[in-house]
Write a structure and sequence with these properties.
The protein is an alpha/beta fold. 39% of the residues lie in helices and 16% in strands. The protein contains nine helices and five strands. A five-stranded parallel beta sheet has the order 3-2-1-4-5. Strand 1, helix 4 and strand 2 form a beta-alpha-beta unit. Helix 3 packs parallel to helix 4. The radius of gyration is 19 Å and the shape is elongated.
Length: 198
């Protein structure tokens, strides 16, 4: 699958201000990832790298768990990296902005952690090999990602722009009810338009 990183960057930058309030799945993933770290990761780390820090939802929890640790963050979006540094009181020098498939580091880490980022990799095997090279011996790469079977329960995707029906008037939803012979409770609605989606 070809991934347009410019488009990924644009979409995350555009959604930055509302990201936290809409990141329900990501928050569940982070909660589970922290449970795994609590169970299997060393209690003390001198230096950690978080890949794809976003707005700092995971970063905040890493900082609380690994007090006194040197925490580094990476994100494709410069503004997200800066927001995380401000939110979590990290040195701006600890923000490494750019595509994790291309950025380089001058240091090694005991722990590299990432939540819901690696599905955007174009060359995962090469990236994992590179990241492993930045780990101290015995270090850990701990991550969660979405795979091809995520959301497999979704039967069909309807886009208002594709079928010429509007959400704000209810015409899109009526179209779906009729075509799918279903009730409103059987539909997952995802949207970002204040007028038509709320």
């Amino acid at each position: 699958m070809l991934i347009d990183k410019t488009e990924v960057e644009y979409r995350f930058k555009k959604s930055m201000e509302s990201y936290d309030e809409n990141a329900h799945a990501q928050k569940m993933v982070i909660r589970h990832l922290m449970e795994l770290l609590n169970a299997y990761s060393p209690l003390v780390c001198n230096r950690i790298l978080e890949v794809g820090c976003g707005t700092g939802l995971l970063t905040k929890q890493l900082k609380e768990k690994y007090t006194g640790c040197e925490l580094w963050v990476n994100d494709l979006v410069d503004a997200m990296c800066s927001k995380t540094a401000d939110r979590c009181q990290l040195s701006p020098k600890h923000c490494v902005v750019g595509d994790i498939e291309q950025v380089t580091f001058e240091r090694r880490f005991e722990l590299i952690v990432s939540a819901s980022t690696f599905q955007w990799l174009v060359h995962p095997a090469q990236t994992f090999a590179r990241l492993a090279g930045y780990l101290y011996q015995g270090g850990q790469l701990v991550f969660s990602t979405f795979g091809k079977d995520n959301y497999k329960e979704l039967k069909k995707l309807y886009l208002s722009s594709s079928i010429g029906k509007r959400k704000s008037t209810g015409n899109l939803f009526n179209e779906i009810y009729n075509k799918e012979n279903c009730r409103a409770s059987e539909i997952i609605h995802i949207g970002d338009a204040k007028k038509g989606d709320y």
